[in-house]
Amino acid sequence: MTWPVLQALLGHWRRHPFQMVTLILGLALATALWSGVQAINAEARASYDRAASAIGGGQADELISPDGPIPLATYAALRRAGWRVSPVVEGWVDGPGGRVRLIGIDPLSAPPGTPAAMAAVGIEGGILSFIGPQGALLATPATAERLEGGSRPVRAVEGLAPGLAFADLPNALALLDRQDVDRLVIHPDQPLRQSPLTEVAPGLERARPATADDLGRLTDSFHLNLTAFGLLSFAVGLFIVNGAVGLAFEQRRPMFRTLRALGVSSGRLVATVVAELLVFALVAGLIGVALGYLIAAALLPDVAATLRGLYGAAVEGTLTLSPVWWLSGLAIAVAGTALAAVTSLWGVARLTPLASARPRAWARANRQTMLAQLAAALLALMIALGAGVAGHGLLSGFILLGGLLIAAALALPAALTGLLALAGRQRGTALREWFWADTRQQVPGLSLALMALLLALAANIGVGTMVQSFRDTFTGWLDQRLASELYVTAETEAQAAEMLDWLDGRTDAVLPIWDTEGEVLGAPAEIYGVVDHPTYRDNWPLLDAVPDVWDRIGAGQGALVNEQLARREGLAPGDPLPMPGGWTTEVTGIYSDYGNPLGQVILPNGVLIERYPDVDRLNFGLRIDPARVDEITAGLEDEVGLPPDNMVDQAALKAFSLDVFERTFAVTGALNVLTLAVAGVAILTSLLTLANMRLPQLAPVWALGVTRDWLARIELLRSVILAALTFVLAIPVGLVLAWVLLAVINVEAFGWRLPMHLYPLDWLWLGLLSAAAAGLAGLWPARRLASRPPSDLIRVFSNER
Amino acid sequence: MLLDLKDIRKSFGEVTILDGVSLSLDRGETLALTGDSGSGKSTLLHIAGALEPFDTGEVLINGKALSGLGDAGRAEIRRDAIGLIFQQFNLIPSLDVAANIAFQARLAGREDKDWTAKLIERLGLSDHLGKYPEELSGGQQQRVAIGRALAGRPPLVLADEPTGNLDEATGDAVMDLLFELTETSGAGLLMVTHSPRLAARAGRRLHLRHGTLTE
User: Fold this and answer.
1) What is the spatial distance between Cα A77 and Cα A69, in angstroms, rounded to a whole number?
2) Across all residues in chain A, what is the average pLDDT?
3) Chain A environment of B72 (Cβ under 8 Å)
4) Please, how many CA atoms are within 13 Å of residue A642, restricted to the half-sphere of its CB?
């Protein structure tokens, strides 16, 4: 019995192939964007895991020295005392394809589960190819490419941590020009009897290794942003699916009723419809997951660059996806279909054999529906405001954001109807009055597509305003922060002294940029020193400070903290600030420090040297006439022997910083465009779907003396006007969205708040784009209408209808 | 002559629907066209109404030939010279009763408010002017359609099964109004109907069979 029922149901799709294409396309697009973002997130997390488990599987404790590197003699003493430890050294090496982080390990003493040690045994030629003076470097294929052609042989090995190269310890020490190691990894299994650590190596401390969670926490906000975008795109795609499923159900109401009258039970009917939808969901899901893979592959290099630039997190730029990802993509397609079809399925379940066969006015204005939507909008708004006022953290920020968007989307039909009613009040020609009245009546039929457009436009305005505000603030901030014309790094302190001698009299000022790291208020922080100089007094981007802040810094008092640290710890000028080493200073100012995930403290330079005497004194900013930058660079290279790579001029540094910035938002921009494209498809499919239903409404107007050409032009104009009105309504929604992103999400996610700027010209451009997109979407149905034979229109009046 | 159809032929594929049909209608005249289902009477009405093209022959409305006219020319004739009444009413769903009645007259730039008010009163629609078609009964909708067809005082009124969707009593009442108001406006009326009883009320009757007309 099920098969004939299914045959009857499927017959509808044979007669309406475009509706089927719409359904599959909407679902595939929704799945594609969602699973694409998930693929990127999954790949990034896998990279974090690999990075964290590079040594000791991320489980083994480590011995570190608060005083810096650990001499090899200490390592030897520990081994002799029975401690099973393995040395690790880290540093940067320059390869022909760029800088790579090098990790030196001892494969024979490395704890079990160390991927590089296992790989060293497994490579062609065995472990002898890894150890010894000619031992190879091991790296992932992508990283190996960057090292290819260098002084050392390189072997590509899958599954290693991305962005890292591994070498046998002696080779790594030689490459890094080091004689000591950075840490000792402790085997999980230790002999029962061994001398206490405090006796053998009193200067070492036992510490937990960095875990994937540390990196994960750092990058959480970034991934959450991506997920939010993926979710938004998914929702926009579901609007298309909901529209297509709803229409198909309405058109098949007479058939459902007949089937029920012929003895098909409600349960069997629902089950058959569910089976039909399941087939569609699986087909669309497969297409969507494949598209998602392509989207992820296209976006991943930019994401990897962003994560590297912003967080120092290495992520492989190529995709390797598990079957679980494919299955979860299909599952989300099925879940999305179920969500989009739930109201229609409920209608089928409740359908009685004596129900009216006449399709209810699917595309008609329905006051009750509109009122119900308004009530739901109000509820969503209240939830959003509740989360905004009472909630804390990133999640409540996203609830606020989501609630606002849902409220705006639900309120859209009522708002559009109101605007159109207002426009229709102006008395004009009969055709004009009909146009406004008819447009108002089209709103419910197009409302899902218009809601999708509203969401896409609001997201575009909101995210665009945030990015543009960020860009403007960031460039202004860079101008302030990078005031020195040239930044130089000496290789040794002796070279630094020689450099300072040479520079004497050749510059306006030499500003030390010395720093160390330490734990401030329980979290890792950077600690810098600053001298009293007009460069800082005139340029440093202070957000809040005590009145005589620079005088006090000049007098060796107080400290400046960055906005992130101040917000996280609730610090204000005048507050005490406990510093590493057990002393306390006072916060005298707070400065903006965009793009830095870490807390930062700036001390008077004298205090920095006094409190942290081991600080490297190698970095300097030079104030010189910009015209002399090349001359000074050449002099430092020729006279002092400073390598060119150790000198960066201001312009190059700004260009680099802006490049990191642009890359960060390249992904956001791409997702923005994709979401807008999905909304464009939603409008096109809605217009095409409605085109046939429009005939009974248009045919009388044609019969009364309006040409098909005119009707087509009016239909086109209607699409453009509806898109334009939706755009006008999207502006305030987008601006609220921007405010939430800047004032709530950014503060929660990154720890800094940005000023909001407005960009009306960008809106104008977006408005024109959306009107053009709606015009293009409306062009096809309009052309079809203009070229319809009169017999199609006359059929509306014939008795058979 | 208000309407003059000369030797009209019309085929749909291999099937000939009208095989050299000729008829004429003058102002103030009423003509009923009867025939079996599928005999082509609606097609003939649509051809007379400049809605449907014909294969050969000629149609003259108010002396103006339809052959050779493009979409715009035909639309102009429909707008200015013809009032149409359909079995399905085919009102414009987005406009209220008042706007529906005035629509075609305003399109043609011939709105006569006094005449429209008189029509509305006579049609008994004064209490329904702000309502939309979906809020009206079938009889009320057809009265609105009659009002729309006559509001611009077109010389020719074409009605396709005007009572086909109405019960007998309502249909009779509607036809009374149609005949009365057509006569008042001085238009010629060509009506297609199944009903011999309705056809009997027209001044002239023609029967369409196998693509040709008989008295």
Assistant:
1) 15
2) 81
3) 707, 709
4) 30
Query: What number is the average pLDDT over the span A376-403?
Result: 86
Question: What does the alpha-carbon distance between residue B100 and residue B178 come to, in Å, rounded to a whole number?
Answer: 17
Mean pLDDT of A523-543: 85
Q: What's the pLDDT score for residue A577?
A: 93
R_g over Cα of chain A: 33
Structure tokens given for B165: 């969707």
In a domain, B5, yes or no: no
CB contact (8 A) between residue A700 and residue B79: no
A84 pLDDT above the threshold of 70? yes
Higher pLDDT, A635 or A317: A635
- Give the span between the Cα atoms of B109 and B98, in whole angstroms: 16
- ipTM computed for the complex: 0.85
Q: Where are the extended beta strands (E) located within A227-334?
A: none
What's the CA gap between A35 and A330, in Å, rounded?
9
Residues β-bridged to residue A14: none
pLDDT at position A311 is 56
Query: If you measure CA to CA, which chain A residue comes closest to B193?
Result: A799
pLDDT at A93: 77
Answer whether B84 sits within 8 Å of A701, measured CB to CB. no
**Taking Cα atoms as reference points, which of A398, A218, A222, A220 lies closest to residue A299?**
A222
Domain containing B179: what range? Answer: 26-50+70-214
Q: A692: distance to nearest CA of chain B, Å?
A: 16
Whether the per-residue pLDDT at B190 is higher than 90: the answer is yes
Q: What does the alpha-carbon distance between residue B33 and residue B25 come to, in Å, rounded to a whole number?
A: 12
Q: How confident is the model at residue A747 (pLDDT cuts 50, 70, 90)?
A: confident
Q: Does B19 fall in a domain?
A: no
Question: Searching chain B, which residue's CA lies closest to the CA of residue A704?
Answer: B79
Q: B92, A790: Cβ pair inside 8 Å?
A: no
**Segment 171-200 of chain B within 8 Å of chain A by CB:** none
Which range in A58-67, A101-110, A404-413 is most confidently predicted, on average pLDDT? A404-413
Mean pLDDT is lowest, of A359-368, A513-522, A723-732, for A359-368
Q: For residue A437, list chain B residues with Cβ-Cβ distance below 8 A.
A: 94-95, 99
Domain boundaries, chain A: 56-208, 481-651
Interchain contact, A704 vs B107, CB within 8 Å: yes
Residue scoring higher pLDDT (A541 or B82): B82
Residue given tokens 């009969």 in the structure block: A430
Question: How many Å lie between the alpha carbon of A370 and the closest alpha carbon of chain B?
Answer: 17
Residues from chain A that touch B71, judged by Cβ atoms under 8 A, are 707-709
Average pLDDT for B58-74: 90
Angstroms from A328 CA to nearest CA on chain B? 46
* Candidate from A700, A705, A791 with C-beta closest to B92: A700
Distance CA A801, CA A696 (A): 10
Residue B167 sits in a domain whose CATH number is 3.40.50.300
What angle separates helix A430-481 from helix A393-424, to the nearest 10 degrees? 150
Mean pLDDT across chain B: 90
Decide if B18 is inside a domain: no
The arithmetic mean of pLDDT across residues A175-185, rounded, is: 84
As a whole number, mean pLDDT of residues A10-30 equals 82
B145 falls within a domain: yes
3-state SS assignment for residue A683 = helix
Alpha-carbon torsion angle B91, B92, B97, B100, nearest 10: -90
Within A629-737, strands assigned E span 647-649
- Beta carbons within 8 Å of A29's beta carbon, 6+ residues apart: A233, A237, A240, A288, A291, A678, A681
Token pair listed for A613: 């005497």
Are A428 and A706 spatial neighbours (Cβ–Cβ below 8 Å)? no
Q: Mind telling me how many Å the CA of B201 is from chain A's nearest CA?
A: 22
